Amino acid sequence: MKTLIIGGGIAGSTLAHALRRYGHDATVAEARGSHRDTGGAFLYLAPNGINALRAIGLGDVPSATGGFEAAGMDFYNARGRRIAELDGSDDLERYGAHGMVLRRARLHGELAERAQAEGAEFLFDARVVELRTQPDGIEATFADGRALTADVVIGADGIWSTVRRLTWPDAPEPSYGGIVDCGSWTEADLPDTTGQQMYFGHRAFFGYTVKDRVAYWFTNLPRRDEPDRHELADLDQDAWMAGIRRLHENDPAPIRAILDAAEHSLGAWPLYDMPSLETWHTARTCLIGDAAHAVSPSTGQGASLAIEDAAVLAHWMQQESEPRAVFEGFTADRKARAEKIVRFGRQIGARKVSSAAGSLFRDLTLGMFLRMGGKATAEQYGYQYAYRVPEQQPPSSTVDPGAPDV
């Protein structure tokens, strides 16, 4: 089956690698000019994401890209009192893997280069503008006039998916959630943390983890009006960081120490809620990753679900020769799981909103909420991808973990 993947991010690159391992043709069309031109700060890859990478021959990627283990979360209120914890000390025993923190650009670059090493073709500056279904395939036309025909097209092009818009013009659009996310990493005179440290600050939510005196931090900034798509693309870093420091000026000492040391944010990203889609596929087109089911960063599951999607879809392409049967099998395996995690993320996100009465209620009930959510967390982390691609020695890492991201 000749597959054209629109979007060369985490989902698209992982799928291309898995398809090539199975012996299928895979072409990736990426709108950016390079697989390294991705931006972003860092992400958490949960145990289920680590296990999915292992199943498709990419188990060494997190370590090769400088990732480090992070287990569990500690939650604090605005006065610095710990109000709840999510214990991750037995993650390895329960799930077969620890979660890991990784720099997004390194992970993305390594996945793309592994896919290319397997023989996947990458086309850059390739922005799709039209999809036309034909009797024996589907034709994609790009903004520069190029046209490609494939058996199937996979939309791995994120929450603002062009494939979704072209295929389902009446599909619901993402809705702005009232929060702008930003973050980076910076040297900080703080001890290493076992897990992630989460603070419900007076005016904004803040999270961090420390490894080797480097703090990986993020903050969720409340903003009622939706930013313009290009407004946050070129920040005045001095003014931006000054505003963040003001929001957290009365918050606990670790937050202030990190922000005093931080010179910049690696970007700012409005957070959106993705409504559930009636279907993810047609006879020859299918969505995966954020294009199908964008999840709140609060779940820590975005990248892991994208990798799972890629692994499962590659399996179904190996099992079935007719595209519709492939996509029906894939969505039967994936849709309910992904949408349940999306709903869980909405519940978590709602608890980040601060108010005097709401904060008191949250402080009293968060521990109970996390205990009740323990089953959901176990379902998320305990997912095991049941099929493995053919064994093959992966190539040596092409990413220098010590090199700076660009």
From TrEMBL:
Show the GO MF annotations: FAD binding; monooxygenase activity
Q: Which domain of life does this protein belong to?
A: Bacteria
Q: Does the keyword DNA-binding apply?
A: no
Pfam families recorded: FAD_binding_3 (PF01494)
Keywords for this entry?
A: Monooxygenase, Oxidoreductase
Q: According to the UniProt entry, where is the signal peptide?
A: none
Q: Which InterPro entries did the record assign?
A: FAD-bd, FAD-dep_Monooxygenase_BioMet, FAD/NAD-bd_sf
Annotated membrane-spanning segments are none
Using the record's annotation, list all stretches that form the FAD-binding domain: 2-344
Protein name per its UniProtKB record: FAD-dependent monooxygenase
